């Protein structure tokens, strides 16, 4: 159970980043008439996580390439290898930019937020991958609990109905690109821990637990965002529109949690990148982290919401093939063996 929860928090930490925790990513894909889309997302996400972790466990992999080869096939491995690398790179840039945007909400310099997260990432990876796993087990229960508490508080304060629009579900297709968007980083991160998973029970706990947790939070969060739809355009971070009527102390608390959500996903992205690069360059992990982060900093000037609005939908569509392979993996795998 403990090991399963460790991987569950790693999966959630990879998924809940600046885009998700801020509400910007959810609003980009879901919004009105999306209850069924979120249910489908839970099903697709749980299946995808199980396939990725199971392949990683069987391969005892230390980076994502062997897992990727099994999922997309030998012909497309090189294309998706480059695509995963670019995805991890660009989304980690989004996380770093998100740290800058969080600082701006309190009238701090955008660059102070950038510097703080870069230094924190370097310090984290001085302890190798164990530093990331330990941090996730401590930070994520607090983050998930705090986020769910605020969303439920907003729901009850505004007397919102959670299931009043179930007859309106025209946006159900959003489940496909949204799930696809979150698949590539999971291949990268879960592919790096295959040699550390010891049983299939861990895999079941991690996959079902992460899918159910993200499903509940996504549904309540999306329902809250629908109520403030007219105000979202005025906020870089939609979560702050929900918090505007609450005491300043709650705003501070949630901003800290939002920053940690950004940090956990940035750390997962960096993990995927450096474990792949180590296959080519035999350099210490901490040195590779520094080199990668230095190249990312100039790109953060594009801005947080701009990066999400352009990058996320594009990757969501491009990853649909990977999602299809994962959902139909038993069939693909059987076909490959019979050739």
Automatic annotation (TrEMBL):
What residues form the membrane-spanning segments? Answer: 7-23, 35-57, 78-97, 109-126, 138-156, 176-194, 203-221, 250-273, 285-304, 310-332
Organism for this UniProt entry: Virgibacillus profundi
The record's PANTHER family line, in alphabetical order, gives: CONSERVED MEMBRANE PROTEIN, MEMBRANE PROTEIN
Give the UniProt keywords, A-Z: Membrane, Transmembrane, Transmembrane helix
Q: Does the keyword Transmembrane helix apply?
A: yes
Which superkingdom, per the lineage? Bacteria
- What is the name listed in the Swiss-Prot or TrEMBL entry for this protein? Membrane protein YkvI
**Record InterPro entries:** YkvI-like
